[in-house]
Design brief:
Elements lengths: L3 H5 L1 H10 L3 E6 L2 E6 L2 E8 L1 H25 L4 H4 L5 H5 L21 E8 L5 E7 L7 H13 L1 H6 L8 H12 L4 E5 L8 H11 L2 E3 L4 E4 L2 E5 L5 E9 L3 H4 L15 H6 L4 E3 L5 H4 L1 H4 L2 H9 L6 E2 L2 E2 L4 H9 L4 E5 L8 E3 L5 H13 L4 E5 L5 E6 L2 E15 L3 E3 L4 E4 L15 E7 L3
Parallel strand pairs: 3-21, 5-12, 6-7, 6-10, 10-11
Antiparallel strand pairs: 1-2, 4-5, 4-18, 8-9, 9-10, 13-16, 14-15, 14-16, 17-18, 18-19, 18-20, 20-21
């Protein structure tokens, strides 16, 4: 399937990735630190038929989530029909009342969705979580594929693979599809952001301007980019890599120094597109995740193609009883956390820790979900000259223009710890290229 020269070049590829600045930043003990996002050259290989199945399920899921977001900020039919409890919606930290009644350009809320999946040892795929705010990670397999093609051209000549280097053109099409009038920009918080490499890389590949908040101004209900010469030009679409709360100090967090005053007002009047839409955090909520299969049935009238991991909501009395009875066999997640944080395994707790956690769970049942621990498949990685097995997931990217499109690649992340199920880059994981066979 792949040539030894590809595997032998893992070290060289990582050296080039470091030279090109392919790093991931983390904050630890209130200190910002950049570290290499380690690459492993043994690819994850997905057969065409298997990816076709994933593609159907991912398109279905993202369509339903977009319909949910439009509904929840307008008519709230899914609440009125008692599919999702009202209290559950409005208690979510991702729900933004400022977005009530606001309709984004073309009614597209999640232009770029990152859906995390794992494949169980039973060969079934499960959705672990939905990322509809500011999903990151597409740039890493893009640049890794490019470097690997150079180091082992024969491998890529001999195998019928989908070319993942089209992500930039797909992203540009997605941005242009909603551009109101003017330039397209990628808004970055700056070089101290964890994913700054990706911001600059995608700007270069798509031809969009990479800007920070100080380079954008609002005048007469329109958004403008001001270059270093003071020249002012209209902006029609902003792929923003800034969290909702920091986007606009006049509407959200007044202490934000990286946002643009009144940009939300321009967006609300339809004079600029924001990718992704503010307020998407309600669909990112791990508690809302529980209801996505119900959303698919409610909005689309279809059975879900892809299953959630078996999930319990302590918010419901019967689920709370189950969680307490089976605590040691479950993984518990804080619904507002991300990046592998706020995840605890019942089996790993001491008796005292368990008692403290259960007390917190009973006090704040809306704050947590519990899931069965999926024994997901290991993938081979190289480790100091040996090939060893490690847990790995897949972040699939779905881009929404007029129709959803599933990128025929993805970010495969793996744990470098043999005993860990946590694969996130912020937790020290590495990544692989994802090969989707074209035949």
């Amino acid at each position: 399937m792949y040539e030894m020269d590809l595997l032998d070049n893992t070290e060289n590829v990582n050296r080039l990735l470091a030279r090109y600045g392919v790093k991931f930043g983390i904050y630890k003990n209130n200190t910002f630190k950049e570290q290499l996002f380690p690459f492993d050259a043994i690819p994850r290989v997905i057969q065409k038929e298997e990816f076709d199945y994933l593609e159907r399920g991912l398109k279905q899921r993202v369509l339903a989530l977009n319909m949910f977001l439009d509904d929840i900020y307008h008519d709230k039919k899914i609440v009125k029909d008692k599919v999702i409890p009202e209290d559950f919606i409005f208690a979510s930290s991702g729900y933004m009342p400022e977005c009530e009644g606001v309709t984004p350009v073309k009614k597209i809320y999640s232009h770029i969705s990152g859906i995390d999946l794992v494949k169980g040892k039973n060969d079934e795929w499960y959705i672990l979580e939905d990322n509809l705010r500011v999903p990151s990670g597409a740039s890493y397999p893009m640049i890794a594929r490019d470097l690997c093609r150079r180091s082992s051209p024969k491998t890529f000549r001999d195998n019928q693979l989908e070319d993942n280097r089209n992500y930039a053109s797909l992203l540009r099409k997605t941005m242009d599809n909603v551009n109101v009038e003017g330039h397209t920009v990628i808004l970055t918080p700056g070089r101290y952001n964890a994913a700054y490499f990706e911001h600059s890389y995608l700007a270069e590949k798509t031809g969009a301007h990479l800007v920070n908040g100080s380079e954008l101004i609002v005048e007469d209900d329109k958004l403008y980019y001001v270059d270093y010469r003071g020249k002012k030009e209209r902006v029609g679409a902003v792929y923003r890599r800034i969290s909702d709360e920091y986007l606009d100090p006049m509407n959200f967090n007044p202490e934000s120094v990286i946002g643009i005053p009144h940009i939300f007002d321009v967006y609300a009047k339809g004079n600029v597109a924001l990718l992704n839409a503010p307020g998407n955090g309600i669909a990112d909520d791990k508690g809302i995740y529980y209801f996505v299969p119900k959303m698919i049935r409610y909005y689309l009238g279809e059975e879900p193609v892809l299953s959630n991991a078996p999930t319990y909501l302590p918010f419901y009395e019967e689920d709370m009883a189950y969680v307490l009875e089976h605590f040691d066999s479950l993984v518990l997640k804080d619904v507002a956390e991300a990046g592998g944080y706020g995840v605890v395994f019942g089996s790993s707790m001491t008796r005292e820790q368990k008692e403290q956690f259960i007390a917190l769970l009973k006090k704040e049942p809306r704050r947590f979900i519990a899931q069965e621990v999926i024994d997901f498949q290991d993938l081979d990685i190289q480790d100091n000259g040996d090939v060893v097995a490690r847990k790995a997931d897949l972040r699939a990217f779905v881009l929404m223009a007029d129709e959803p499109y599933v990128w025929k690649s993805g970010l495969t992340r793996f744990s470098r710890n043999p005993d860990s199920f946590i694969v996130n880059s912020s937790q020290g994981g590495g990544f692989k290229d994802t090969w989707v066979l074209s035949r």
